[in-house]
Amino acid sequence: MKLLKQGAEAKLFISEYLGKKCMVKVREHKSYREKSLDERILKGRMRSEAALLSRAKKAGIRTPVIQKIDTGNFSITCEFIEGKTLREELQEGSRNAKARCKSLGALVAKLHSNGIIHGDLTTSNIIVHRGRLVCLDFGLGDFSAKPEDKAVDLLCLKKMFLSTHFAFLECWKDVEQGYCRNYAGGKRVIGQMAAVESRARYY
Ligand SMILES: Nc1ncnc2c1ncn2[C@@H]1O[C@H](COP(=O)(O)OP(=O)(O)O)[C@@H](O)[C@H]1O
Ligand SMILES: [Mg+2]
């Protein structure tokens, strides 16, 4: 297996599964956590990541297909998605930025209208594969119907977006537009987002 990335929570390896390129995500122990607690946390994250990935796929959101779950070494094997991350694409100065941002909003709309909170919405967790967006990394996600949880999820993306993609600041509006057009509860979540933001300012 070839190490692709050492993340904060996991190591990512490129390998092969049934003759096809795949991605193996191995969660790592944290030495500062007591061992049995650590194992419970890692198993819980892995299970919820797998559950969220397959729920999202059922809802018609593009996600990598899970091929294997190994609770022994805390790893998930899934198909390798070719393409650049949306972050890379925007940073290279994409001519499609506006359309991409609308699709990004539509993707989050689909997640939220199906009660899925991603938990780590960033443009690094989206791969542009043959012109379409594929959503990755549900390790910090959860299921929730609450507008507040959806607002916090979207706010995470907004903060990341505005700090990383300052060349495309005006495109945040396109994200919100894509979101509201594809989710009947979208306007309420955007309103809630403003409430969360103004609360955060006083902490
Ligand atoms: N199935 C996949 N196919 C292709 N690249 C992937 C896949 N999963 C992850 N990656 C790449 O590895 C990076 C980190 O993976 P991710 O699941 O987001 O882990 P982390 O928890 O470390 O953020 C992603 O930003 C992406 O570039
Ligand atoms: Mg990630």
UniProtKB/TrEMBL annotation:
Q: Which reaction does it catalyse?
A: L-threonyl-[protein] + ATP = O-phospho-L-threonyl-[protein] + ADP + H(+); L-seryl-[protein] + ATP = O-phospho-L-seryl-[protein] + ADP + H(+)
Q: What is this protein called?
A: non-specific serine/threonine protein kinase
One GO cellular component this record assigns the protein to is: cytosol
For whether the record's keyword set contains Nucleotide-binding, the answer is: yes
- Domain (Protein kinase) spans 1-203
Source organism of the structure: Candidatus Iainarchaeum sp
Family per UniProt? Belongs to the protein kinase superfamily. BUD32 family.
Spell out the NCBIfam families in the cross-references: arch_bud32 (TIGR03724)
Q: Which UniProt keywords apply?
A: ATP-binding, Kinase, Nucleotide-binding, Serine/threonine-protein kinase, Transferase, tRNA processing
| PROSITE patterns in alphabetical order | PROTEIN_KINASE_DOM, PROTEIN_KINASE_TYR
The record's section on Pfam families has: Pkinase
In alphabetical order, the GO MF annotations are:
ATP binding; protein serine/threonine kinase activity
In its keyword annotation, does this UniProt entry include tRNA processing? yes
- Give GO terms for biological process: tRNA processing
In short, the EC number is 2.7.11.1
PANTHER family associated with the record:
EKC_KEOPS COMPLEX SUBUNIT TP53RK (PTHR12209:SF0), NON-SPECIFIC SERINE/THREONINE PROTEIN KINASE (PTHR12209)
